[in-house]
């Protein structure tokens, strides 16, 4: 074809919609020659629910993309190609450009603004026959051969002349009478990119294997912190995860399908294999690939004889995860808590990461559970960074809550200023009962009594004050406490506590007189 102007038609339930004419961009090989467009140079693909026309320009070595709208067709940009023969697939909204001559695949996520590939070029590898297809495939294998050997034969003929790529994700091998379905090896793709924020953003957009994407994001973030990567890099990674979670809440796609305990079990299995994952997720590219799985027309209608009717527990759990988004609670329980257990040395770096996490969550107005604040206090107090901790409290970096106040009181055993911040926070939050108990614990009995009377705290037992006063071995203090409850607590004079402690007070006074 030497024409460059095309008309599009959309077939819908409402009828046929005629789209505006549009002109394809084509480079000329010579000054006076007209460009030729072959039928196999044009593809129609749906990516993220959008309809695109993809056109190969063999002279310019570019793949042009055009997006169809109801009233217009707009060119969306161009991607470079490196082979004279090109094929296109779409898997889980990822655009795969097969460079047939070099036998590699370049992946693009056109959801993001960047036109850079997701990772380094990847080979196309076979992952074997499913069990349901193994028996039928044996009939075509020669005596003495195995299905695995047959797969090796297929691998030697990757991108053969008899291969036909079918949009979106199928490949037909005519000579071997095999139909292959292309899958993404997310772990291998992640290992082939050094741009961690870009990898996380890519994984957060994957829906077909949401559980796998989520586990990879958790493992990558965990390893980033444990390896003490630059704070700026970790901050950008956290921003990607928080922004994705915020967006998933807006669209309603987020579903926490796995309980916290089940999440911990899954993450524990990730930690078990960390030596392997660590090399893949943070270092060089190993045997990374885009997976290809076999299928046949027979296996589509037949259940394997040894396959259980009911899915396993782990399969049911994974099926409940419909989004790879990670909530702030999951960030704490599956990333920060394990890191806190494993990280050794100065905690300044870890505190900086937590602050960046809090900043990211605050920027999208997402609440964070108090346990992350408690962890920050523990880390600062452990390194005796009390001045910095005080600034965090005063400037509301760690906002007031009962959990924060109680941790300040606990950590303030070695620093009176920090403990005072905890007491002030209890009073600020109107947690009168807890405030009175802390005053008694610190020995401020009369102040506690005055505060209890002023704020009408009736939940604190009189015996608590009486026992504390008796323990001080101060008869005047015990007398003051008894007088307070006798004057302001109706019916106290008739209680057994009143009689008992009055008798004790008399004995103490008698002993002093003697």
From TrEMBL:
GO biological process, one term: regulation of autophagy
Record's compositionally biased regions (Low complexity): 286-299
Region (Disordered): 277-325
Start-end of Polar residues biased regions: 305-325
Cellular-component GO terms for this entry: late endosome membrane; lysosomal membrane; Mon1-Ccz1 complex
Pfam families with a match to the protein in the record: RMC1_C
Source taxon at top rank: Eukaryota
Ranges of residues in domain Mic1: 295-486
Name of protein: Uncharacterized protein C18orf8-like isoform X4
Lineage: Eukaryota, Viridiplantae, Streptophyta, Embryophyta, Tracheophyta
Gene: LOC105111591
């Amino acid at each position: 074809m030497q024409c460059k102007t095309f008309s599009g038609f959309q077939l819908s339930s409402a009828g046929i919609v005629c789209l505006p004419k549009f002109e394809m961009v084509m480079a000329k090989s010579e000054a006076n020659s007209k460009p030729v467009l072959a039928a196999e140079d044009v593809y129609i693909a749906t990516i993220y629910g959008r309809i695109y026309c993809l056109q190969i320009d063999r002279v310019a070595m570019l793949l042009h993309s055009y997006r169809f709208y109801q009233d217009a067709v707009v060119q969306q940009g161009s991607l470079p190609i490196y082979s004279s023969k090109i094929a296109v697939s779409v898997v889980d909204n990822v655009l795969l450009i097969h460079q047939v001559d070099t036998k590699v695949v370049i992946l693009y996520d056109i959801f993001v603004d960047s036109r850079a590939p997701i990772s380094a070029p990847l080979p196309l590898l076979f992952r074997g026959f499913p069990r349901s297809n193994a028996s039928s495939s044996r009939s075509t294998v020669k005596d003495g051969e195995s299905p695995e050997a047959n797969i090796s034969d297929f691998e030697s003929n990757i991108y053969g002349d008899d291969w036909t790529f079918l949009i979106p994700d199928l490949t037909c091998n005519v000579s071997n009478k095999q139909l292959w379905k292309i899958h993404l090896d997310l772990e291998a793709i992640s290992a082939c990119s050094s741009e961690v924020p870009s990898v996380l953003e890519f994984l957060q957009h994957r829906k077909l294997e949401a559980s796998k994407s989520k586990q990879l994001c958790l493992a990558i973030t965990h390893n980033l912190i444990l390896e003490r990567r630059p704070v700026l890099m970790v901050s950008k990674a956290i921003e990607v995860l928080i922004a994705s979670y915020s967006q998933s809440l807006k669209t309603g796609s987020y579903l926490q399908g796995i309980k916290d305990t089940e999440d911990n079990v899954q993450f524990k299995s990730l930690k078990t294999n960390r030596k392997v994952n660590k090399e893949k997720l943070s270092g060089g590219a190993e045997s990374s690939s885009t997976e290809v799985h076999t299928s046949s027309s027979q296996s589509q209608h037949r259940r394997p004889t040894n396959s259980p009717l009911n899915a396993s527990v782990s399969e049911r759990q994974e099926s409940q995860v419909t989004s790879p988004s990670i909530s702030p609670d999951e960030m704490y329980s599956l990333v920060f808590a394990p890191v806190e257990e494993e990280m050794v040395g100065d905690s300044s770096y870890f505190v900086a990461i937590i602050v960046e996490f809090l900043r990211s969550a605050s920027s999208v107005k997402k609440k964070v559970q108090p346990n992350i604040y408690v962890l920050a206090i523990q880390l600062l107090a452990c390194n005796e960074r009390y001045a910095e901790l005080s600034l965090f409290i005063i400037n509301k970096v760690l906002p007031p809550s009962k959990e924060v106040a109680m941790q300040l009181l606990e950590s303030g055993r070695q620093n009176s200023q920090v403990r005072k911040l905890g007491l002030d926070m209890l009073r600020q939050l109107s947690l009168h009962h807890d405030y009175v108990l802390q005053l008694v614990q610190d020995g401020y009995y009369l102040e506690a009594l005055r505060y209890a009377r002023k704020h009408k705290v009736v939940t604190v037992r009189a015996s608590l004050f009486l026992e504390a006063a008796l323990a001080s071995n101060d008869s005047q203090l015990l007398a003051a406490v008894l007088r307070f409850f006798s004057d302001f607590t109706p019916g106290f004079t008739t209680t057994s506590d009143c009689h008992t402690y009055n008798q004790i007070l008399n004995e103490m006074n008698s002993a002093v007189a003697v």
